[in-house]
Design a protein that fits this description.
Elements lengths: L20 E8 L4 E7 L2 E3 L10 E4 L4 E4 L1 E6 L12 H10 L2 E6 L10 H14 L3 E4 L15 H6 L6 E2 L9 H14 L2 E4 L12 E2 L2 H6 L3 E2 L2 H17 L2 E4 L5 H12 L4 E5 L1 H5 L21 H13 L4 E2 L8 H4 L16 H10 L6 H16 L16 E11 L18 E11 L2 E5 L2 E2 L7
Parallel strand pairs: 1-4, 1-5, 6-7, 7-8, 9-10, 10-13, 11-12, 13-14, 14-15
Antiparallel strand pairs: 1-2, 2-3, 5-16, 16-17, 17-18, 18-19
The structure holds zinc ion (ZN).
Length: 450
């Protein structure tokens, strides 16, 4: 019997560092340049690798951020494949710098059974470019009447940890109360689409003098803030975590701030479009600007930016909502709600938060990666870019500027409000668990998985 002289596998002993990558000179979370090294899917000590054997990439001038995590995306599969699929959605995600995407439950059929969440989970594994975490429905069929079997969804192979009826508000207070109690028992979170339906019948834009001028039905700010206030009280009573989707108004910011001051376990998100765009765009009657909740007023945009900067709003989430062209070609009042956002989110955040001095890049890493991962209980993002952490990495050229064009979007739909708009920052390279997913701004072809 012979004794092996060298250990050549990753099982025991000193693992062989095959395929080591060394990145030199990138601004670490936007700060001082620091070398980064990746081997076997994790960040390793750059001073401990064989530099001659490593693939070296000069990253000077680029900002190194952790892979982005989107807590709120609509990937449309199953049932909406004409507008997006899991595979096309993760291409858009990767191109935008995302390595993990939470997929909303308003598919057809609804993600209210283990079969559907496991299907989405499996499609994500097959697509391979990013981690796909299915969100489970709160109520059966998103009908707001009976609770879905949340325990079954949490215990499924898709390990659901976020529940949402997004697209619909869980309007019934008793149902919301029981959902929060179940979520608390499961260690999960309820992500509420806060919209009192009785205040928003037929609403298609922000309720304001402009809505009256344009002859469009308004969506009052109180319809959002009132539900958030109610749910904060219910979450406190249940000892549960509440997450507020797409906060869009000054009033909601103030409710969230008060709830946090009271010690309630509430977190909140803002979308990129609500950080940059206002209702004035609706003057065009172009349905690209139709979204729910609607684009609001200047004072709301200012309040949302300040709230994201001071931590009242915890994260940026895209609410990526692809639609086939027909759905947006109708008259404004009849067109579908929603905008794609995965590929423009980082640029919009750079424009609205970084270039305004409200947030530094370490702050961007927090609101677009660390914090959303923590809310969604996705492991591997709590020590961004640190040795031993999974190598989820984005290299951004912050000095580049680009005009957003439909032809360059990697998702299946192009209903972006930013077409023709110049945005700062270009995502050049992305690694997901040490595997290249974006190279020089293009999607890396993935090897077929066994
Ligand atoms: Zn929503």
């Amino acid at each position: 019997m012979t004794t092996p002289q060298t250990v050549s596998t990753t099982h025991g002993g000193t693992p062989t560092r095959t395929g080591t990558t060394l990145l030199t000179g990138a601004a670490f979370l936007g700060g001082e340049p620091r070398d980064l090294a990746i081997a076997d899917g994790v960040f390793v000590d750059p001073s401990a690798i064989d530099r001659d054997a490593a693939e070296v990439l000069d990253a000077s001038g680029l900002v190194a951020l952790p892979g982005l995590v989107d807590l709120h995306a609509h990937l449309r599969q199953p049932g909406g494949e004409q507008s997006e699929t899991v595979a096309s959605g993760v291409r858009a995600a990767a191109a935008g710098g995302y390595t993990c995407v939470f997929a909303m439950a308003n598919t057809t059929p609804v993600a209210d059974t283990p079969a559907v969440v496991e299907q989405v989970h499996r499609l994500g594994l097959e697509a391979g470019l990013a981690t796909v975490r299915p969100i489970g429905a709160v109520s059966v069929g998103l009908a707001g009447e009976r609770l879905a079997d949340m325990g079954m969804l949490a215990g499924s192979a898709a390990r659901v940890s976020v529940f949402s009826d997004d697209g619909h508000c869980v309007a019934d207070a008793e149902l919301m109360r029981r959902a929060l109690e179940h979520a608390a028992a499961l260690g999960a979170v309820i992500a509420q689409h806060a919209q009192d339906p009785s205040l928003t019948r037929g609403s298609v834009m922000h309720e304001s003098p402009l809505a009256a001028e344009l002859g469009l039905t308004g969506w009052p700010s109180a319809a959002e803030a009132a539900i958030v206030a109610r749910d904060a009280m219910l979450a406190e009573a249940a000892g549960a975590r509440l997450h507020v989707c797409h906060v869009s108004t000054l009033e909601t910011v103030e409710v969230v701030r008060a709830a946090k001051a009271r010690g309630i376990a509430i977190t909140a998100e803002v979308t990129p479009h609500h950080l940059l765009l206002t209702e004035e765009l609706v003057r065009s009657y172009d349905a690209r600007y139709k979204v729910n909740p609607p684009l609001r007023a200047d004072r709301d945009v200012r309040a949302l930016r300040e709230a994201l900067a001071d931590g009242t709003i915890d994260i940026v989430a895209t609410d990526h909502a692809p639609h086939a062209p027909e759905a947006k070609q109708a008259a404004f009042a009849d067109a579908a709600f929603g905008m794609v956002g995965l590929e423009t989110a980082l640029g919009v955040v750079q424009e609205s938060m970084v270039e305004t001095g409200l947030l530094d890049w370490a702050g961007v890493a927090r609101v677009m990666s660390t914090a959303p991962a923590a809310i969604g209980r996705e492991p591997g993002y709590d020590a961004p870019l640190e040795i031993g952490s999974p190598a989820h990495l984005v290299l951004v050229d912050p000095a580049a500027r680009r005009i957003v064009e439909a032809a360059s979007l990697k998702g299946r739909s192009t209903n972006s409000p930013f077409l023709g708009v110049e945005l700062p920052g270009t995502v050049l390279h992305v690694w997901h668990g040490g595997r290249r997913t974006v190279v020089d701004g293009e999607i890396a072809e993935m090897p077929v998985q066994a």
